[in-house]
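User: Just a sanity check before I run the rest of the batch. Below are the structure tokens for the first item. I only need the designed sequence back.
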């Protein structure tokens, strides 16, 4: 099994030592650097480009969520670590691979690493996990992740709109997004998620109501609670927009 590189971010030396011991027991993870604040985490992530980033949420100065702005989500899987369970929902909303409560348990950490390993394989074009199987016109077809433009959920089904057409997959939107690489899609509202690079223009804001226009002319509304994260993701990939 291929060894994954990791960055540990935590302002408590004891917490870093505890996690190091857990990772040593699990094996196949090489900790290449440690940081105690968000600025150092961003610097070390750019320098080492680790496969995994174990990120504490409560850090001096900027918190772990703010630290994500300087970390390439297409290269590193972020696993949040914290003593407070109330941050779990937000962690997944910003694209975290997983969420571990302190003290970190070995079995739970192992599952998080395996999930990250699967995601990294997809992002690196692994032949078995680099696409999604959907039902299209009565046939089962496989669609490349990079071609998916939009997901639209209706109950336990999700319509998958991609560069060559559209089809269905039996899944909830939450469940499907949990199985897909977080760098590919960003959630807009309760029913939709979009590929950031498919956005051609946007108008408004979180306060005024954010709307997106895809390159095929499709218009989408973004919920206010997700507007800030959506804009961050789009600005990393999209060309300058036409703002209203």
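Assistant: Here's the designed sequence for the first item:
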């Amino acid at each position: 099994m291929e060894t994954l590189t990791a960055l540990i971010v935590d302002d408590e030396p004891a917490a870093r030592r505890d996690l190091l011991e857990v990772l040593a027991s699990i094996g196949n993870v090489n900790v290449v650097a440690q940081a105690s604040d968000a600025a150092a985490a961003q610097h070390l992530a750019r320098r080492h480009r680790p496969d995994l980033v174990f990120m504490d949420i409560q850090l001096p100065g900027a918190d772990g969520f703010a630290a994500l702005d300087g970390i390439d989500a297409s290269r590193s899987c972020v696993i949040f670590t914290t003593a407070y369970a109330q941050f779990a929902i937000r962690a997944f909303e910003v694209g975290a691979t997983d969420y571990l409560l302190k003290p970190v348990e070995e079995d739970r950490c192992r599952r998080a690493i395996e999930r990250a390993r699967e995601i990294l394989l997809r992002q690196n074009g692994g032949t078995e996990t680099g696409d999604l199987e959907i039902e299209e016109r009565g046939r089962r077809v496989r669609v490349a992740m990079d071609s998916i433009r939009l997901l639209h959920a209706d109950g336990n089904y999700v319509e998958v709109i991609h560069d060559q057409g559209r089809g269905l997959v039996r899944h909830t939107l939450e469940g499907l997004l949990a199985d897909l690489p977080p760098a590919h899609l960003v959630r807009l509202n309760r029913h939709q998620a979009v590929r950031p690079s498919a956005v051609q223009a946007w108008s408004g804001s979180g306060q005024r109501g954010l709307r997106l226009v895809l390159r095929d002319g499709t218009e989408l509304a973004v919920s206010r609670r997700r507007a800030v994260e959506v804009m961050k993701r789009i600005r990393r990939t999209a060309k300058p927009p036409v703002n209203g």
